[in-house]
């Protein structure tokens, strides 16, 4: 045994998750929490979801993290009721699957011996159980643990046998692909509401946030400062939010005090407000903006199955997209079911619209003619996104699937199963990465070309309602937990 082990500091950590309760809780050392890399610990232990052999522990050396080389020792057991103050030792199940309870120690210097005293795990266990109990009372995604000096044990039978593994950027954990949270906007307690949608300004400096209580906030995320609040009638409704292409106007749809749905425009620089002339009692779920031929455009999709094209500069309706498929109140509508999502191609020439029954239609923006349709689901298409070259469209649906299909032939080229309703999808500026947000509180980052999961971001405690990229590759997320987070890819 190392004679100096009592001088080595360790801090407990805990990873435990439940699909039924939609959470992952992480207890980690303060320096890891402060560096926003607690997800690294989850990655390390993700493959160990079965109980560790009695008397043994996993020892992982991780090189090249944001906080330098770290050393992790852990073991897995099943979460018990007594960990949360319940009676007896019954295993917590989810709903029929035991919940893994992974606990261990994090060190900033290596252990050269093959064994470590089990006493240290008992010290760590007492601390993480307190955090675990606190989590079930008031969920927090990440909690800080307190460090202590490792203890020696003269009786070798009380030492744990370590099973050693090494990880580096080339072995198992892609440290260069880690994403870290660099900013959070939380709702104050007096105006807590779920986030419906977030949008970056064209220069990436501001984020517009739409809440379901019809409040809009403009957030300077780099200064961690709310610049403006735009407050409407306190009536819950869900809609997307968008910046005009010049970045001066914010658009969203709300219900006014007469109960009619209206698209509101707000010039946040001058304070000028305008309503687009169409008024409907049906909810407007989705909007998208575009710039073409010195004109700024806005497209809206609504509960009443209409798609409307607007000239933002002149604040007037150009036309409604129509075809001979859906008859509605004396005229033909573009969809047979409520329209839940719209997206405009990067060149401003193509529109995609998705409805509540899983149908996506493609339209020419210039004349409003339909160019094709594809069924991507039997459930609602909650989000659509064009790749940067405009040749591929991604859809996220209530059936828990993300599908990619080509614009030229409308053939599905990739199908990803998330198993939870996908509420939002967004391509990065490079077009190589897709971010998705789903009801299980998770943001997933995908390699579009390989169809592989790069990483999962787990700091939200409510379903993810919106993800969007800035022009320089930052990712913003909005959640039902009322928080907005900004993420940056690690170098």
Summarize the structure.
It is built from three helices and 39 strands. The chain is mainly beta and 491 residues long. The two termini are 38 Å apart.
Helix content: under 10%
Please name the CATH topology of the largest domain: Methylamine Dehydrogenase, Chain H
Shape: elongated
Average pLDDT rating: 83
> Over the alpha carbons, how many angstroms does the gyration radius reach?
25 Å
Strand content: over 45%
Number of structural units classed as domains: 2
So how many helices?
3
**Main sheet overview:** 9 strands, mixed
Architecture of the largest domain in CATH?
A: 7 Propeller
For the secondary structure, the number of strands is: 39
Between the first and last Cα atoms, what is the distance in angstroms? 38 Å
Q: Quickly name the level 1 CATH class of the largest domain.
A: Mainly Beta
Please, what is the CATH homologous superfamily of the largest domain?
Answer: YVTN repeat-like/Quinoprotein amine dehydrogenase
Uncertain segments: 326-331
The structural class is mainly beta
Attribute tags:
mainly beta, 39 strands, 2 domains, 491 residues, four-stranded antiparallel sheet, single chain, Methylamine Dehydrogenase, Chain H, elongated, 3 helices
Describe this structure in words.
The protein is mostly beta strands and 491 residues long. It folds into 2 domains: 5-177; 179-489, YVTN repeat-like/Quinoprotein amine dehydrogenase (Methylamine Dehydrogenase, Chain H), CATH 2.130.10. It contains 3 helices and 39 strands. Mean pLDDT is 83; it is low at 326-331.
């Amino acid at each position: 045994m190392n004679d100096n082990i009592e001088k080595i500091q360790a801090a407990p950590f805990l990873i435990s998750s439940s699909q039924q309760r939609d959470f992952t809780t992480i207890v980690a050392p303060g320096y890891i929490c402060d560096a926003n890399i607690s997800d690294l610990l989850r990655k390390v232990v993700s493959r160990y979801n079965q109980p560790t052999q009695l008397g043994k522990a996993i020892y992982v050396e991780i090189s090249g993290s944001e906080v330098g080389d770290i050393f992790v020792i852990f073991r897995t057991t099943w979460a018990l009721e007594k960990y949360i103050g319940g009676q007896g030792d019954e295993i917590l199940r989810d709903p029929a699957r035991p919940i893994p309870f992974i606990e261990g120690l994090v060190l900033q210097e290596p252990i050269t011996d093959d064994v470590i005293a089990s006493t240290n795990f008992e010290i760590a266990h007492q601390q993480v159980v307190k955090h675990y109990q606190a989590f079930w009372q008031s969920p927090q995604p990440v909690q800080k643990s307190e460090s202590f000096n490792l203890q020696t044990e003269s009786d070798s039978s009380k030492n744990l046998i370590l099973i050693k593994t090494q990880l580096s950027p080339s072995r198992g954990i892609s440290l260069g692909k880690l994403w870290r949270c660099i900013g959070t906007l939380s709702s104050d307690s007096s105006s807590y509401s779920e986030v419906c949608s977030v949008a970056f300004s064209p220069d990436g400096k501001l984020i517009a946030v739409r809440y379901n209580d019809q409040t809009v906030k403009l957030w300077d995320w780099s200064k961690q400062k709310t610049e403006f609040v735009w407050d409407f009638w306190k009536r819950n409704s869900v809609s997307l939010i968008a910046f005009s292409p010049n970045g001066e106007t914010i658009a969203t749809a709300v219900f006014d005090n007469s109960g009619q749905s209206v698209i509101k425009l707000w010039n946040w620089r001058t304070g000028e407000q305008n309503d687009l002339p169409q008024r409907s009692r049906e909810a407007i779920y989705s909007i998208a903006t575009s710039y073409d031929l010195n004109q700024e455009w806005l497209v809206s999709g609504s509960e009443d199955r209409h798609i409307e094209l607007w000239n933002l500069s002149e604040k007037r309706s150009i036309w409604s997209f129509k075809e001979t498929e859906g008859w509605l109140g004396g005229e033909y509508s573009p969809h047979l079911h409520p329209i839940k999502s719209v997206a405009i191609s990067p060149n401003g020439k193509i529109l995609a619209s998705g409805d509540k029954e899983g149908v996506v239609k493609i339209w020419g923006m210039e004349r409003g003619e339909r160019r094709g349709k594809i069924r991507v689901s039997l459930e609602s298409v909650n989000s659509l996104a064009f790749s940067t070259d405009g040749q591929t469209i991604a859809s996220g649906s209530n059936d828990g699937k993300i599908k990619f299909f080509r614009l030229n032939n409308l053939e599905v080229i990739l199908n990803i199963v998330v198993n939870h309703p996908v509420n939002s999808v967004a391509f990065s500026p490079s077009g190589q990465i897709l971010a998705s947000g789903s009801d299980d509180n998770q943001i997933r980052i995908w390699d579009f070309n390989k169809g592989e999961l790069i990483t999962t971001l787990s700091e939200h405690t409510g379903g993810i309602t919106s993800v969007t990229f800035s022009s320089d590759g930052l990712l913003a997320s909005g959640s039902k937990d009322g928080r907005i987070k900004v993420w940056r890819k690690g170098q």
